[in-house]
Amino acid sequence: MESMTGYGESRFTLGGVQVVCSARSVNSRFLEVAVYCPEELAWFKPHCEEIVRNRFTRGQIEIAFIPAAPLPSELVFNNDILTQYEKFLAQKLGKKKVVVPPQDYLHIPGFVEKKARDWRSYRSKLDFHLLRALIKMQHARRAEGKRTVRICLTHLRYLNRLLRRIAVLSAQAQKKRVLALRHRIYRDLLGYSRSEAEFTAESVSAAERRLIVQAAQAIWQQRREELVRLVSYDASEEISRIGMHIAGMLGIFRKKESAGRELEFFLQELQREANTLAAKVHDGEASALVVIMKSEIEKLREQVRNLQ
Question: Tell me, what DSSP letter sits at residue 102?
Answer without folding.
Answer: G
